[in-house]
Design brief:
It holds the Pfam family Sigma70_r2. The chain has eight helices and no strands. It is elongated and about 85 Å long.
Length: 168
């Protein structure tokens, strides 16, 4: 294939590449940049194209690989790695002051709401909260697993209504 034929075939693939580039980038300006970069790579690597193979598939593969490489580069650039020796200051609580009054009010309201639940609902709910599995609660309370799930659901629903003031 001559260079003129290669360039001609490459130019006619641009309309087919546009939707794929937009699908990858979700932005028309970035899609145009990706197409331009793909065309540049395809043109500069035309000697690697084997005559008789599918040129469209070859160019689409170049585009996909270019997009993935650029995406990985941008992800690496956004990653912050602190190499200083002061790592102990990152999560230090010695400088942080906290007002726990709001948390105390919320916790008191939660405990009060759970205490006001019917025992049939609060017992399975608290067991689930402590980490028991549904089948373990079912075995310990000698009730069907469906009943356990229902009671936990109803307890959550009632607690959500009672504690709606803490939703945000």
């Amino acid at each position: 294939m001559t260079a003129v034929e290669f360039n001609y075939n490459l130019q006619h693939l641009i309309p087919a590449l546009e939707p794929f580039a937009y699908k990858l980038t979700k932005d028309s300006a970035n899609a145009k940049d990706l197409i331009q970069e793909t065309m540049l790579k395809a043109f500069s690597n035309k000697e690697k194209f084997m005559v008789g193979t599918n040129m469209k598939a070859w160019v689409f593969t170049i585009m996909r690989n270019t997009f993935l490489t650029n995406y990985q580069k941008s992800a690496r650039q956004k990653t912050f790695i602190d190499t200083s020796e002061n790592l102990h200051f990152i999560n230090s609580t010695s400088i942080k002051q906290e007002n726990s009054a709001y948390g105390n009010f919320a916790m008191n309201d939660i405990q009060k709401a759970i205490a006001e639940l019917d025992d049939a609902y609060s017992e399975p709910f608290m067991m689930y909260f402590r980490g028991f599995k549904y089948h373990e609660i079912s075995d310990r309370l000698s009730i069907p697993i469906g009943t356990v799930k229902n009671r936990i659901f109803l307890a959550r629903k009632e607690l959500k209504e009672v504690l709606s003031m803490y939703a945000n």
